[in-house]
Design brief:
By secondary structure, the chain is α/β, with parallel strands linked by helices. Helices cover 36% and strands 20% of the residues. The protein folds into three domains: 3-100, Beta Barrel (OB fold (Dihydrolipoamide Acetyltransferase, E2P)); 106-267, Rossmann fold; 280-369, Ribonucleotide Reductase Protein R1, domain 1 (Orthogonal Bundle), CATH 1.10.40.50. The protein has helices at 3-14, 28-39, 140-153, 170-182, 200-207, 222-230, 280-286, 288-294, 311-318, 323-341, 345-369, and strands spanning 43-51, 54-59, 62-67, 85-89, 96-100, 106-110, 118-123, 127-133, 156-162, 188-191, 211-215, 255-258, 264-267.
């Protein structure tokens, strides 16, 4: 058994709670949900890792390995994942996960495959900690993507600017924080350095309540951050490349760990792609200032392109709204619409009708311009 799981077992023993699974987030709600399975003699536990048809589950008796054959449906969004609460049949060998409890939240992205399937990364998450390295130039568009998925999942996002020790100038750090805050309305932005300890106490206080998932690209410092929160080197860490400051994939599976200061942490592998998956509400939350401005547009279906009385374009003209924000907003909405349309026949038809209408209008405008309208 790995050191990460031995830490979790010690956390179970050290918990002052009367229920041995309390350090993993067990509460009265989960107990009520699990009651029918308890009557069947099944054992409750939380999934700490899933790997090739099997998973490790933290139970009252410690971490056990169980087969997932009964919870592997064809729908990729319904497969068991890290963070799920499982009902385990521990009477035989091998043990089997017979079911998992309904999820309170789920962090989902689209896969990089051509099948446009959703991939669930973590379940029952309260805080989505988005790690952004200050060793490389800020990619505000990528941060907006992560935030859209985080809001859509039902979790509260938090942007952590890692490797803050690389920006010794307080004024420069202030500008970086402000840049991120402009794309993260309603989200705390926290500079953190695992080397100096800056900000780690604040982050530890946030993640001590509920379940948090660490998200970010390779080299963002997620594993180093996890070690700082755990108080020891549990997660393997590799140095970033000197050429571009990017890191290698250190974490290869999603691992759930009980933190010594309270709370639960899910560390994830670096994400190369951050594709949206039915995240229209999340996009609206990220660009809340545009959504609010839209309410003052003359037309309720304003596309914010050239319509008269557009409050969004007026804000751009007066400088209160950066044009980059509108471009990013449009881009994410289009991408999300395409993803949803691939699984929604009615939406596909609506998009096709809109495209034909715009094409016809464009053609008529060109003909009028050329003087060929009779």
């Amino acid at each position: 058994m790995s050191s990460s799981f031995s830490l979790s077992s010690s956390a179970l023993q050290a918990s002052p709670s009367s229920h041995p699974l309390a350090p993993y987030g067990w509460d009265e709600g989960w107990e009520a949900e699990f009651a029918p399975y308890a009557e069947q003699g099944l054992v409750s536990g939380r999934v700490v890792r899933v790997d090739r048809g099997q998973c490790d589950v933290a139970t009252a008796d410690g971490v056990v390995r169980a087969d997932t054959a009964f919870v592997t449906p064809h729908d990729p969004l319904r497969v068991i994942c890290t963070g799920d609460w499982a009902a385990v049949d521990a009477s035989g060998s091998p043990r089997y996960v017979r079911a998992y409890l309904p999820r309170r939240t789920a962090f989902v992205r689209s896969t990089s495959s051509q099948r446009s399937e959703g991939q669930i990364l973590a379940a029952n998450v309260d805080h989505a900690v988005i790690a952004v390295s200050l060793a490389v130039e800020l990619d505000l568009g990528r941060i907006e993507r992560f935030l859209a998925l985080a809001w859509e999942s039902g979790a509260q996002p938090l942007v952590v600017l890692t490797k803050a020790d690389l920006v010794p100038d307080a004024t420069g750090m202030s500008y970086l924080v402000q840049d991120v805050e402009t794309v993260a309305p309603g989200v705390q932005v926290l500079p953190v350095s695992s080397l100096t300890g800056e900000g780690t106490d604040v982050l530890a206080a946030v993640v001590s309540d509920g379940t948090s998932v660490l998200l970010g690209v390779s080299g963002a410092g997620k594993s180093t951050l996890a070690n700082a929160l755990l108080g020891e080197d549990v997660m393997e860490v590799q140095a970033a490349r000197d050429v571009d400051g990017k890191g290698r994939h250190t974490t290869t599976t999603r691992n759930l760990l009980a933190l010594p200061g309270g709370g639960v942490l899910i560390d994830t592998p670096g994400l190369r792609g951050v594709g949206l998956w039915d995240a229209n509400t999340g996009v609206g939350q990220v660009f809340s200032e545009i959504e609010e401005l839209s309410a003052d547009c003359r037309f309720h279906d304003c596309a914010h392109e050239s319509e008269p009385g557009c409050a969004v374009l007026a804000a751009i003209a007066e400088g209160s709204l950066p044009e980059r924000r509108l471009d990013s907003y449009r881009k994410l909405l289009r991408e999300n619409q395409r993803i949803v349309a691939k699984t929604d026949a009615r939406l596909r038809a609506e998009i096709r009708r809109d495209w034909k209408l715009k094409h016809a209008e464009g053609r008529a405008a060109m003909e009028a311009k050329r003087g060929r309208v009779r």
